[in-house]
Amino acid sequence: MGSNGIFACGALVLTLIATPAGSQTVTAIEFPGAMHTRPHGINPSGEITGIYVNPDTSVHSFLLDRRGFTTIDVLGAIGTNALRINPQGEIVGFYVPSAGTGRGFVWRRGIFTDIDMPGTVLNFANGINARGDIVGQYNDTPGIPQHGFVLSQGHFVAIDFPGALRSTAFDINERGDIVGAYVGADGITHLYLLSSGVFTTLDIPGALGTLGTGTAGALAGINAKGDIVGAYRGADGKTRGFLLQAAGFGTIDFPDATSTRPTAINPQGDIVGYYRDPAGRDHGFLIRR
Hints:
This protein has 289 residues and is mainly β. The chain has strands spanning 6-8, 13-15, 25-29, 36-42, 48-53, 59-65, 68-72, 79-85, 91-96, 103-108, 111-114, 122-128, 134-139, 147-152, 155-159, 166-172, 178-183, 189-195, 198-202, 209-211, 221-222, 228-233, 239-245, 248-253, 259-265, 271-276, 282-288.
C-alpha cells in the first residue's frame, strides 16, 4: 500500500506512572479505507502488526513499517489475524479456515507455517519473543478455548493457572516471562504473570475484571523490562487501558472513547493499541514515550 497510514492524533489523557508530563507523542494508525484498525504488536524497530476490518466486515492482517502498510493474508482463509512481531520480523497470529475454526501460524519472510498442536480442536498464537518461543491458547474440546500454551524448540507445554476455569497466554518476553489471563472460580477474569515457574495474579485496583479470556487475540503485552500493558473494566463499566511498571499502575484513556485497549509495548516503552469511538469504530494508536 502506498500510504504510510500514520496521522496526527488529538490529545490523549494519560496518567502514566513515572512518566513526565508532556513526554508522550501520540499518533493514530488507520488502515486506508478500513472500518476498524486494531494494532496488536510492535517490535524494537517500530514495526507494527495488527488487523483491519473492511466495510464488508472482511478481516485482514497488516504489517506497518517504514514502507507503509502491507496486507498479510492466508490464502483461502475467511479471516487472518496477525498479532505479535518479534525483533527478527517473525509474526504470529491465527487464521480462520472455515466458520467456527481457528489455527495458529508463524509468518517468516513471507511464508506461513501452521502451528500444529496435537490433540487440539483449535489453537491461536498470540505472542513470540526474540528466541522464537510462542505463546497462545487452545481447546481440546469444541467450544471456548480453555488452556494456554508455550511452544519452545518444538515442544508444547500447557499453561493452566492453578484452579482456574480457563486460562490463556497473551505474550512472552526475552526472559521467558509470560503474561496472560485466567477465569477464576468466582467467574472473574484476572491477569497473571508467569515468571520462573511462579504464577502471580495482577489485579488492577478497583477494577471489575481484566479483559479477557475465552476470546482469541493478544489482549495484553509484556516487554523485555517486564512492563505490561492491557485493559480492564472499571467500576463504572468503562474499558480503560493500563500500564504496569515497577512503580505501579497508570491509566491510558482516550478522551470521548467508549473503550481504550493497549495491546503491546516494546523495549523502548512505545505502546500500540486501539480505542473505540462513540460511533462504534476502532482506531489504532501509537504512543511514543
